[in-house]
């Protein structure tokens, strides 16, 4: 039964009485307080559910299988940029272990040959290498993009890992940043990534848009520096933030065409770029990091509520979740913490550089 009318009249200040279905209902709580409580309860429920989901994803829920991007004949290729070291090398290895043929993109031919040799002999897959300095615009880079585009048209390219990235040599105030360093960061992180994706995406759409065909994947490696603005790494931080927005816009355009586009967030990982040599709970090895990425497809983990984005490694996931939890407040404190951390790192890096210079001076 539905009440055709609800009568409200106030007989005590702030205590309205509702006449509902023939009953008088006196409200002891002022309406504004009731509304605020309801909003609070809704937020609490949202965060409780998302935290519960985060824990489930990190413990028991299985991610979607990476094989979803493979064609039935097992001859699918995965392209990994920046695959001669760090995270990219590990992507190349683990994708080869999963029986993807691998397209290797890097700037050093000898290093690419070594990786190719390792993957072919250890995992019995095919490889194809493209030698290109992705930070340098011009005819060589354009030619590499054309060749990769042609390759994608005549082979089953199902996975693109936009891994290559460049950062500052050390934390540096924006006003003192060298223009060459800035150009290198922007060309590598943004222009190359966007141009390469543009070169291969038509072939991916073609392979994945018909019913029953395998999905394609475009994964770009982001950074929590793009999520929490990072003073003294302003250019790097800005490029990673740009990749996040670009990913989401593109993801929506092609999701109905069978191409999944996503940004994978990372905090520190042991590598040349981070200059961290020893792993810890907060700083995984590239191997453990990549393993977490390839076993958690479809799970946002630390990026709860943010579409087309995920933060797979468990400590990074908690960090990312915490930043999202308190919204504005945590971003303000996050920026403060990072500002202090980068100032300290800069001081130490400058001292180290000066010591090395002195040592060089003595040995001459
Ligand atoms: N490590 C971290 O803590 C961390 C944190 C967040 C996000 N990330 C992101 O993760 C990705 C991989 O970083 P990483 O730590 O693995 O870096 P890394 O150890 O420095 O490796 C970078 C790879 O990219 C290649 N590369 C760099 N510049 C290139 C260029 N101009 N042309 C062609 N290849 C080039 C390097 O080749 P060479 O072997 O020739 O140098 C190497 O193979 C980046 O996008 C980075 O922003 C890293």
From TrEMBL:
Membrane association type: Single-pass membrane protein
Residues annotated as transmembrane: 31-49
Cellular component annotations (GO), alphabetically ordered: endoplasmic reticulum membrane
SUPFAM superfamilies referenced in this protein's UniProt entry, alphabetically: NAD(P)-binding Rossmann-fold domains (SSF51735)
UniProt-listed InterPro entries: 3_ketoreductase_fungal (IPR027533), NAD(P)-bd_dom_sf (IPR036291), Sc_DH/Rdtase_CS (IPR020904), SDR_fam (IPR002347)
GO molecular function, one term: ketoreductase activity
Record keywords, A-Z: Endoplasmic reticulum, Fatty acid biosynthesis, Fatty acid metabolism, Lipid biosynthesis, Lipid metabolism, Membrane, NADP, Oxidoreductase, Transmembrane, Transmembrane helix
Protein purpose: Component of the microsomal membrane bound fatty acid elongation system, which produces the 26-carbon very long-chain fatty acids (VLCFA) from palmitate. Catalyzes the reduction of the 3-ketoacyl-CoA intermediate that is formed in each cycle of fatty acid elongation. VLCFAs serve as precursors for ceramide and sphingolipids.
Designated name of the protein: Very-long-chain 3-oxoacyl-CoA reductase
Lineage: Eukaryota, Fungi, Dikarya, Basidiomycota, Agaricomycotina
């Amino acid at each position: 039964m539905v009440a055709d009318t609800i009568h409200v009249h106030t007989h005590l200040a702030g205590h309205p009485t509702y006449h509902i279905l023939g009953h008088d209902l006196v409200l002891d709580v002022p309406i504004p307080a009731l509304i605020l409580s309801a909003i609070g309860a809704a937020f609490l429920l949202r965060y409780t559910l998302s935290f519960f989901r985060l824990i489930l994803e990190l413990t028991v829920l299985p991610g979607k299988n990476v094989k979803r991007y493979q064609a039935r004949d097992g001859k699918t290729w995965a392209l990994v940029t920046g695959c001669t070291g760090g995270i990219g090398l590990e992507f190349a290895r683990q994708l080869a272990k999963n029986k993807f043929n691998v397209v290797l993109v890097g700037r050093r031919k000898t290093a690419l040959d070594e990786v190719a040799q390792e993957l072919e002999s250890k995992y019995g897959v095919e490889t194809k290498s493209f030698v290109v300095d992705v930070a340098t615009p011009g005819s060589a880079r354009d030619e590499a993009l054309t060749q990769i585009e042609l390759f994608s048209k005549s082979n089953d390219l199902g996975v693109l890992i936009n891994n290559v990235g460049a950062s500052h040599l050390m934390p540096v105030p924006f006003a003192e940043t060298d223009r060459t360093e800035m150009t290198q960061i922007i060309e590598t992180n943004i222009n190359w990534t966007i141009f390469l994706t543009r070169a291969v995406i038509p072939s991916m759409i073609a392979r994945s848009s018909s019913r029953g065909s395998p999905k394609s994947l475009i994964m770009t490696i982001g950074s929590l520096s793009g999520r929490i603005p990072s003073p003294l790494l302003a250019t790097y931080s800005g490029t990673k933030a740009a990749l996040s927005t670009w990913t989401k816009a593109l993801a929506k355009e092609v999701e109905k065409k069978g191409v999944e586009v996503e940004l994978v967030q990372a905090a520190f990982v042991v590598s040349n770029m981070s200059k961290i040599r020893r792993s810890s709970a907060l700083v995984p090895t590239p191997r453990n990091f990549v393993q977490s990425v390839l076993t958690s497809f479809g799970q946002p983990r630390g990026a709860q509520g943010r579409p087309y984005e995920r933060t797979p490694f468990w400590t990074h996931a908690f960090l990312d979740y915490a930043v999202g939890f308190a919204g504005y407040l945590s971003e303000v404190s996050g920026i403060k913490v990072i500002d202090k951390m980068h100032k300290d790192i800069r001081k130490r890096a400058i001292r180290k550089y000066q010591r090395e210079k002195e040592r060089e001076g003595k040995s001459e």
